[in-house]
Write a structure and sequence with these properties.
The complex is a heterodimer of chains A (113) and B (113). With 113 residues, chain A is mostly beta strands. Helix content of chain A is 0%, strand content 54%. In chain B, strands 2, 4, 5, 6, 9, 10 and 11 form a seven-stranded mixed β-sheet that branches. Chain B has a four-stranded antiparallel β-sheet with strand order 1-3-8-7, with no helix packed on it. The chains are: A mainly beta (113), B mainly beta (113). The interface between A and B is medium-sized, with 25 and 21 residues.
């Protein structure tokens, strides 16, 4: 069965430090891959997506993600986090004939001043 | 109004009540979705409508009843809910049902007493 795993329920980083959020998926073919962010009291907003081509994808707010087929991973990175990045981050995979999104459980990012 | 709007933002109801959640998208999209978001769990897709026709019902209990009168409006009718139905209910829309970005509303926080 298709699945998405975000191994870290929460991560704490200092402001200005680098960030990497992990996402692993289980799917037989190359899926469509997404990262969304949810700020408190808000809906989800798309950060970036991978459909094909260059495996390093640039997104909004200075985020990037790299698709690694051999590791079935799509990790999200940011070189220097800001306090406003504190939010919950969701990885999703679009798979199957109807590209239904399969979601990870989310990683909550906490920023230390 | 722009994007995807949801009303009400908060709802408290008893198990014998009947209420409805409303979603409206101002993006000209053809597909709309209802999701259930519970703490520490992946987003759970409840219903998908494409061009006003329901195309998926992921075995959601019959106490949840969707209605899509046109491509811009989506309702979720609630009756005889259980306390475990307490969650954040998110509405989303996308251009089509394929692998497109989904745009989310802010959600309705539902509490069932």
């Amino acid at each position: 069965a298709q699945s998405v795993t975000q191994p870290d329920i929460h991560i704490t980083v200092s402001e200005g430090a680098s960030l990497e959020l992990r996402c692993n998926y289980s799917y037989g073919a190359t899926p469509y891959l997404f990262w969304y962010v949810q700020s408190p009291g808000q809906g989800l907003q798309l950060l970036l997506k991978y459909f094909s081509g260059d495996t390093l994808v640039q997104g909004i707010k200075g985020f990037e993600a790299e698709f690694k087929r051999s590791q079935s991973s799509f990790n999200l990175r940011k070189p220097s986090v800001h306090w406003s990045d504190a939010a919950e981050y969701f990885c999703a995979v679009g798979a199957g004939s109807n590209y239904q999104l399969i979601w990870g459980a989310g990683t909550k990012l906490i920023i230390k001043p | 109004e722009t994007g995807v709007t949801q009303t009400p933002r908060h709802l408290v109801m008893g198990m014998t009540n009947k209420k409805s959640l409303k979603c409206e998208q101002h993006l000209g999209h053809n597909a709309m979705y209802w999701y259930k978001q519970s703490a520490k769990k992946p987003l759970e897709l409840m219903f998908v409508y494409s061009l006003e026709e329901r195309v998926e019902n992921n075995s959601v209990p019959s106490r949840f009843s969707p209605e899509c009168p046109n491509s811009s409006h989506l309702f979720l009718h609630l009756h005889t809910l259980q306390p475990e139905d307490s969650a954040l209910y998110l509405c989303a829309s996308s251009q089509d049902r394929g692998a497109n970005e989904q745009f989310f509303g802010p959600g309705t926080r539902l509490t069932v007493l």
